[in-house]
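Hello again, I could really use a second opinion on something today. Take your time with it, there's no hurry, and the full record follows here:

___
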Amino acid sequence: MVVGAGPTGLMAPTKLASDSVRCVIVDAAAGPTLTSKAALVHASTLELLDETGAAEDLVAAGVITHGIVVRDQGRVLVRAALDGLASRYPFALGVPQSTTEQVLLRRLGELGGSVRRCHRVESIETDGNGYLVSGIDDSGSDAGGAGAVPFRFWARYVIGAPTARSAQRSG
């Protein structure tokens, strides 16, 4: 089971699915992010994405960046070259987080996976052989919360990949 469907939470099950390992992905949000909190994908990440079959689509959607210059009021603070890396992707890729999530969701779907949205995890307990993940499924509820139902999943492994908006990060 993967808890959280941001870029990391989508990468893990996409990689697992590409290796014929199925898992359940839950996220408290009703849909993927429409904003971007991350905008640069590094060469090593592109290599991992290549293993899932998602790198080509992401590179096509982004802007190849060979260097970064950080300035403060015109003064150069940092200059970093990103080309010449020992990688199949000797550059960084400028791409919004929302696009990264779209590409990973599409690839995950092609591999037979999906995200269970509006599933808020409230506890994870171990039984010695795996984990019992419990929470609330708000997918059928109205604005007042009526219709929300509890859920419980048993999983051999749990990957926690909380997004910036999740309770795990705010609490």
Summary: Helices lie at 7-18, 43-52, 55-61, 97-110, 167-170. Confidence is low (pLDDT under 50) at residues 167-171. The domain at 1-35+115-171 is CATH 3.50.50.60 (FAD/NAD(P)-binding domain). The first strand starts at residue 2 and ends at 3.
